[in-house]
Design a protein that fits this description.
alpha+beta; five-stranded antiparallel β-sheet
Length: about 170
């Protein structure tokens, strides 16, 4: 401009926390109400609140279906779950927010119309690497949770402490 280069204003602390929360919400496809519930649960659980929050989000059924390579995106994993294509421990579960536990096994139904597409996807070498807490058997089209997820298992660069601070200030 006329009086020198324009300067960007430094973002306020509130703006930084809000952006971090929104990044988390959009990555997992959550509403504000859902994220508040997960946050309340993370506060009640023993341990680091931020780590608890990310661990409970990573244990959602739609997220595990995506991370195991059974779906190309989290929204498509949510659709597969809602339409009844996913089994948890041999029983059909159609709730995308279902919380998986240690040693739960997620499989694809044998009669699923998505079977051929998923088999192609699983054999694609460009797939994302599987997180450490998942054990994936490509041939059987199944994934099992062998450990509880850590904050490092979240693929998005998120500082969970900023999200905790955002909700504690409200």
């Amino acid at each position: 401009g006329q009086h020198g280069p324009t300067r960007r204003k430094k973002l306020s602390d509130y703006a930084l926390r809000l952006m971090e929360k929104q990044k988390l919400r959009y990555h997992y496809g959550l509403s504000e109400k859902q994220l508040r519930r997960y946050m309340a649960e993370a506060v009640r659980t023993k341990g680091n609140t931020g780590t608890n929050l990310l661990a409970s989000l990573e244990r959602r059924l739609d997220n595990v279906v995506f991370r195991s390579g059974l779906a190309p995106t989290i929204p498509s994993a949510r659709q597969m779950t809602n339409h009844g294509h996913i089994l948890v421990n041999g029983k059909r579960v159609n709730i995308a927010s279902y919380q998986l536990k240690h040693n739960d096994v997620v499989t694809l139904r044998d009669v699923s119309k998505w079977k051929d597409k998923i088999e192609e996807r699983l054999k694609d070498p460009n797939n994302l690497a599987y997180p450490q807490y998942l054990e994936v058997d490509v041939d059987a089209r199944k994934a099992s949770i062998k450990a509880l997820p850590d904050a490092e298992d979240c693929p998005v660069d998120i500082d969970p402490q900023l999200i905790v601070e955002y909700y504690s200030g409200r």
